[in-house]
Amino acid sequence: MIPNEPEEPAAGGARTHGRALPIASPAQVGRAALRLVRLAPGPFTAMMVLNALAAGAGLVSPWLLGDIVDEVTAGTSVATVDRLALAILGFALAQLLLARWARHIGHRFGERALAHVREEFTDRALNTPASVVERAGTGDLTTRGTTDVAALGVTLRDAAPDVFVNGVQALFIIGALVVLDPLLGLFGLLVLIGCWLVVRWYLRHALGGYLAEGEANSHLAEQLAATATGARTVEALRLQRQRVDAAQDAVDACVRTRLRTLFLRSVLYPGLDVAQVVPLAGVLLVGAVLIDRGTVTLGAVVAAALYLRQLAQPLEAVLDRVEELQSSGASFARVEGLGLVDRTDLAASPTPDGDRIEVTGARFAYEGGGDVLRGVDLTVRPGEHLAVVGPSGAGKTTLGRLLAGLDAPHAGTVSVGGVPVADLDPVQLRRHIVLVTQEHHVFIGTVRDNVQIAAPAATDDELTAALVAVGAQWALELPGGLDAELGAGGHPTDGAQAQQLALARVVLANPHTLVLDEATALLDPRTARHAERALAAVLKGRTVIAVAHRLQTAHDADRVAVMEDGRLTELGTHDELVAAGGAYAALWDSWHGGTPR
Asked: What pLDDT does residue 438 have?
């Protein structure tokens, strides 16, 4: 078996980091947040009203406590104090119940909003051109769909309702302070001004810091995924040291960005503490002077001090969430950024006229490298089985990626039915050409769930036929048959079985052209050949382009294309090329250990 080519994306990963997916601006994030509110205006309005009522109920207790102080000072009866105390208890209970009700509605609103975000992200990801994802790196998309969505979920479910509740309470308390005594109310405004100055400094620096941290995390995930996926290539080419160094650089970048955001928090929290303590001390000092002058009563000063202490609780709750909101704001910008991928050209792409595939003068280079393909010309006739062979590094896999629309040539064209393959939208592309590699996934669910993904309307008979076609009778023999559970908690699948499930999906998808890149590499030779023959039988009349790492695949093909150093050097049938005694004949002899042809 010919080793994997070094230009495989899995062997590196750095090239995919150069074109990150878009990031939404603050204005775009704001519009996205408003869209979420419009999804459930009723619950959002109910949350606002309940929060306002809870905040109003919370204002009564300090006021009544101040009245108690004044009444006691004036020598009032115990019954009056008891009535005021019972009123305090009643309003405190009302505030508790209203606040909990408001939070309950807020959490439900947050869960619905999060579900919408997840569904929208999944839809956008599935409709993002594969070439865009490949260039950006799967680590970036994966991090946005997991870490960023999870962070946003915590905000929508917990942080946002909490900030709203406490923000309303803080505004009501400031208003009560001003009504109680305008001069003492100024100290409440001082708390807001001090906190605002500290938070303003923090916000100026935090967004960039958290975006940089998110990008560094994405790059680290991409490096680790690339190394793990390309482990065989790394080992074969002895790239261990380079991959360790690349991963270490990514880790160092993560540490630097993390330390930056940690420094921002180390300034934020002490600054907020000072901004809250100083005004409280000022109220007590100024209140003492005003009492001495007879301008205010002792009860008013006590109530003002209680309001300031009460103000600390919602402010602390809001400010404690500032760091989380800033972090999740960056996550929201990254999640929403997926919707900014330019799909204009794809939406306007014409429908291919026929199934003929033409490669004309195609040249291609990965970022930071020289040309991997150097002027390839190739015509693939509808319905033929073409094998692409060549030594390691010849450009076979790269040509397969261009044929499948994952990349576009920087010179020349690769078209199907007269339309550039890379310009087709994902839905059109899947109808015409499907790439099958040794990368595969078994979803947690039944056999039916795993295969029916390719054709949701497929019947059980069609599912069974697809599994039999690729030699996956084992799936039908499991307890429960098509309803047998796979993955965690169900039947464990090895690499060969997972690959057969992937091939069964292809049979159901039924495109007119398949590009197979080591599609049967994980199967044993006997099973692999059976699957290849079964595919050829099921897809009779379809086009199959096989990047052949097993030369037996080339032997069974209608024609063989030989790649050397990025160029197409030979094209013909197996027998013709063996008889010609060129590069293919040498590969065939090497494959058979020098035995007679």
From this structure: 67
**Domain 357-591 CATH superfamily:** P-loop containing nucleotide triphosphate hydrolases (3.40.50.300)
pLDDT of residue 114: 83
Q: Are 547 and 515 in contact (CB under 8 A)?
A: yes
Specify whether domain 9-342 bears CATH 3.40.50.360: no
Question: Counting Cβ atoms within 10 Å, is residue 525 exposed (0-12), middle (13-18) or buried (19+)?
Answer: exposed
* pTM for the structure as a whole: 0.54
Residue-range domain boundaries for the chain: 9-342, 357-591
How many other β-carbons are positioned within 10 Å of the β-carbon of residue 495? 12
Whole-number Å distance between alpha carbons of 513 and 130: 17
Burial call 139-166: b when 16+ CB within 10 Å, e when fewer: bbbbbbbebbbebbbbbbbbbbbbbbbb
- pLDDT at position 427 is 67
Q: Check: CB of residue 118 under 8 Å from CB of residue 176.
A: no
Tokens 């905000």 found at: 155
Query: CA angle, corner 273, sides to 268 and 276, nearest 5?
Result: 125
Listed in sequence order, the residues at least 6 apart from 456 whose beta carbon sits closer than 8 Å to its beta carbon are none
**What pLDDT sits at residue 359?**
92
pLDDT at 464: 92
Burial class (CB in 10 A: 0-12, 13-18, 19+), 110: buried
- CA dist 437 and 10 (Å) reads 12
Span between the terminal Cα atoms of the chain, in Å = 18
Whether 113 and 156 have beta carbons less than 8 Å apart is answered as yes
Considering Cα of 236, then 242, then 247, then 248, what sign does the dihedral take? positive
User: What is the tens place of the pLDDT at every residue in 367-398?
Assistant: 667 888 998 999 998 888 898 988 888 888 88
Rounded distance between C-alpha atoms, residue 331 and residue 244, angstroms: 28
Which residue positions in the chain have pLDDT lower than 50?
1-18, 596-597
Give the residue carrying structure tokens 């979803």: 443
User: 138, 128, 134, 56: which is closest to 99 by C-alpha?
Assistant: 56
| Residue type present at position 481 | G
Other CB atoms within 10 Å distance of the CB of residue 266: 10
Alpha-carbon distance of 258 to 577, in angstroms, equals 58
Helix (H, G, I), strand (E, B), or coil: what is residue 453?
coil
φ, ψ dihedrals at 24, nearest 5° = -70, 150
Is the distance from CB of 448 to CB of 508 less than 8 angstroms?
no
**Among 429, 371, 415, which Cα is nearest to 133's?**
429
* Matching residue, tokens 């040309």: 371
Beta-carbon neighbour count of residue 292 at 10 Å? 8
Mean residue pLDDT of the chain comes to 77
- Rounded to whole angstroms, how far apart are CA atoms 593 and 590? 5
